[in-house]
Amino acid sequence: MKIAILSRNARLYSTQRLVDAARKRKHTVKVVDPLRCYMSIAPQSFAIHFKGKPLGAVDCVIPRIGASSTFYGTAVLRQLELMGVYTPNPSDAVLRARDKLRCLQLLAARGVDMPITAFGDAPDDTADLLAMLGEPPHIIKLNEGTQGQGVVLAEKRSASRSVIEAFRGLYANFLVQEFIREANGSDLRCFVVGNEVVAAMERSSAPGEFRANLHRGGSARSVELSDDERAVAIHAASALGLEVAGVDLLRSSRGPLLLEVNASPGLEGIEKSTGVDVAGAIVAHCEGRLAERRAAEPKRKRKARTPH
What is the pLDDT of residues 35-56, one digit of tens each? Predict the structure, then answer.
């Protein structure tokens, strides 16, 4: 199998682990910086060049698209899809997950439980928006923030108003959510590959911090999920069209609540805290899906030739 990994940096832990896992399974693999790609688009004709040369044959592309390169990175991924390359995370699915508001709307429509969330644009609506959530504390988060950036805990209603006004002054899109106190500053990262959770960790915030992100000094340990937690994680990833996803949940008095879904989840924290070879699981999944596609190809061709 010829694998391309869309990544800005070949030295990142997650990228390097995928390279190592692919080579261990005897595949050819190259790291492709999507911002060094350029594309030719014509009727029924699609091509990609990378660093001045045709990209060459690719069977599978594993996207590792960061928030800063979402627009162009997903365009390159879409081009590869149009060229018939398999990917576990299609471009449209990546875009669904990257937009927090859109993600929550789609999952709420599929019955996934989550913290009560409010969104508004006009400054005159702030008081009513906060009334939808009830009494503080409130969590206010930027729509496209990552690794805990742009997430604020407002303990008082006046603080909520001040943060909302500040974000609006920056013309930023944001969400306001209820604060789940019983989570005690912890959340669950469920790593979904295909139709199973291959690894899970509980992340706990550092002293004086409410965000459980490891980049914010939080700690992590392997955790056993309940059947409900596992089912929610798999359902959320599937509903967005992702075959590889990091699904973040909160444990609450009313059951597991979805925080967000990450289409390019990091591997370092989950592998080191659980000891699971997540990179190997991703590559093995791609092998199986590509074999299914190839087995179905003759059937599709025969069907196409069948006269109607």
Answer: 999 999 999 899 999 999 999 9
- Which residues span the domain enclosing 232? 97-111+182-276
Say whether both 175 and 192 belong to one domain. no
Tell me, yes or no, whether 303 lies in a domain. no
Kindly report, residue by residue over 227-253, the tens digit of the pLDDT.
999 999 999 999 999 999 999 999 999
Enumerate the β-bridge partners of residue 247: 190, 261
pTM: 0.87
Q: What 3 state SS string does the chain have?
A: CEEEEECCCCCCHHHHHHHHHHHHCCCEEEEECHHHEEEEEECCEEEEEECCEECCCCCEEEECCCHHHHHHHHHHHHHHHHCCCECCCCHHHHHHHHCHHHHHHHHHHCCCCCCCEECCCCHHHHHHHHHHHCCCCEEEEECCCCCCCCEEEECCHHHHHHHHHHHHHCCCCEEEEECCHHHCCEEEEEEEECCEEEEEEEEECCCCCCCCCHHHCCEEEECCCCHHHHHHHHHHHHHHCCCEEEEEEEEECCEEEEEEEECCCCCHHHHHHHCCCHHHHHHHHHHHHHHHHHHHHHHHHHHHHCCC
- Distance between CA 251 and CA 274 in Å, rounded? 19
Q: How far apart are CA 187 and CA 251, in angstroms?
A: 7
- Closest to 57 in 3D by CA, of 27, 35, 36, 90: 27
- Rounded Cα distance between 137 and 298, Å, is 58
Question: Are residues 251 and 107 part of one domain?
Answer: yes
196 within a domain of the structure (yes/no): yes
What is the C-alpha to C-alpha distance for residues 293 and 284, in angstroms, rounded to an integer? 14
Structural domain count of the chain: 3
